[in-house]
């Protein structure tokens, strides 16, 4: 499944360029040209990450997008996109996880996005999975196949059917050979 990113910026050139770069890199990208549009998309869709400009239709537009993302039940990673460096304590106080300063070299930007997504997904995994009960811990400690028992059974049935077909084909071939030999002998 592709990770979905919402880009919020009122500069269309930045929006389209960043969208193209991210899509080429394998992300599913939605865009919003204003803080208001970004907040609406956050309510109507789920995203792995939100990247928002700080100053758009108002000076508070970026902070409003961050607040909407923080209140989303699916907990996206949040990055601020700014032409002006923002002090770490300022963007942390807003609730963002990272600040990205534009313009930025594409490879550096992608590395920062991947790193943020990986760390954020790891945190969500820790928060969302309750610690196993002692009896379950023994089951988890043993390496298990990633396939379900139904998938394993289906795979076994498929293998058995394939072997049966091959065996049947060999038997039929052997019968045909015997019939041909008998016919030659009869001539």
The CATH superfamily label of the largest domain reads Response regulator
Number of helices, counting only DSSP H or I runs of 4 residues or more: 7
What is the terminal-to-terminal distance? 66 Å
Question: Based on DSSP secondary structure assignment, what is the total number of beta strands?
Answer: 5
Helical content band: 55-70%
Question: Can you list the strand order of the major beta sheet?
Answer: 2-1-3-4-5
**CATH class wording of the largest domain:** Alpha Beta
Low-confidence stretches: 126-183
Radius of gyration: 28 Å
Could you provide a short overview of the structure?
The protein has helices spanning 12-24, 35-44, 61-71, 88-94, 106-128, 134-141, 149-186; strands at 4-8, 28-32, 49-53, 77-82, 98-101. By secondary structure, the chain is an alpha/beta fold.
């Amino acid at each position: 499944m592709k990770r979905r990113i919402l880009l919020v910026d009122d500069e269309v050139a930045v929006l389209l360029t960043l969208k193209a770069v991210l899509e080429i890199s394998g992300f599913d990208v939605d865009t919003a040209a204003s803080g208001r549009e970004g907040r609406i998309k956050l309510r109507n869709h789920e995203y792995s990450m939100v990247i928002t400009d700080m100053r758009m239709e108002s000076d508070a537009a970026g902070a409003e997008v961050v607040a909407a993302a923080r209140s989303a039940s699916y907990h996206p990673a949040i990055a601020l996109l700014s032409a002006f460096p923002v002090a770490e304590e300022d963007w942390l106080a807003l609730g963002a996880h990272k600040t990205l300063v534009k313009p930025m070299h594409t490879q550096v930007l992608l590395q920062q996005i991947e790193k943020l997504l990986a760390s954020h997904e790891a945190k969500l995994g820790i928060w969302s999975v309750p610690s196993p009960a002692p009896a379950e811990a023994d089951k988890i400690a043993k390496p298990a196949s990633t396939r379900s028992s139904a998938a394993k059974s289906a795979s076994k049935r498929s293998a058995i059917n394939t072997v049966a077909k091959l065996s049947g084909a060999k038997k039929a071939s052997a019968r045909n050979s015997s019939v041909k030999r008998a016919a030659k002998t009869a001539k």
